[in-house]
Amino acid sequence: MTRSERPSNGAGRLRFLVLHGPNTNLFGRRETNIYGLETLEFIDENIRRVAAELGVELIIQQSNHEGVLVDAFQSHIDDVDGAIINPAGFSFSSVALHDVIKAVPFPTIEVHLSNLDQRDQVHRNSIITAAAKGKVMGLGWRSYTAALRALVEIVRESRQAANPVKTVTR
């Protein structure tokens, strides 16, 4: 069911896109002093656990290819309520990801395991940030679950504001 096909009263199960960028599939092996020992599979399990707790659906995808990530946003433009992306190395170079995030009608939260402000100059200035609704970083794997919790609240509040409950008085 597309977002536009859902009942106008805001009912319907929320669905979110979770995208992992290049080299995130190497979490747990790659620069563990920066990214920790947790694997991408561990992160995905925890995101799914929180999604189940919150009663929302997830579509999770990892790619090392910029176009695949752009295509994921476009192919889900009408059937998700929001997105979380760890653009990884594309954070600092992908105008295409920046532009697609601005083009989609749903909020996107950028996540990073490390605190970019504490990184070297190359890894400090994400161009994705200007397009995203917000950014969660520096919490390790918890950056993803914190972002999911925030995104669910943002979307639910937005739906509630768009469809306020009307009370009947007699």
Structure, explained:
It is built from five helices and five strands; from the N terminus they run βααβαβαββα. It has helices at 32-35, 40-54, 66-75, 95-103, 142-162; strands spanning 15-20, 57-62, 82-86, 108-112, 134-137. Strands 2-1-3-4-5 form a five-stranded parallel sheet, with helices on both faces. The longest helix is centred in the C-terminal third of the chain and has 21 residues, at 142-162. It is globular. Mean pLDDT is 91; it is low at 6-10.
Taken from the alpha-carbon principal axes, the silhouette is globular
Please identify the oligomeric state.
single chain
The CATH topology annotation reads as Rossmann fold
Tell me how many strands there are.
Answer: 5
For this entry, give a set of tags.
alpha/beta; Rossmann fold; 5 helices; 5 strands
SSE layout and pairing:
Elements: E1 15-20, H1 32-35, H2 40-54, E2 57-62, H3 66-75, E3 82-86, H4 95-103, E4 108-112, E5 134-137, H5 142-162
Parallel strand pairs: 1-2, 1-3, 3-4, 4-5
Short description:
By secondary structure, the chain is an alpha/beta fold.
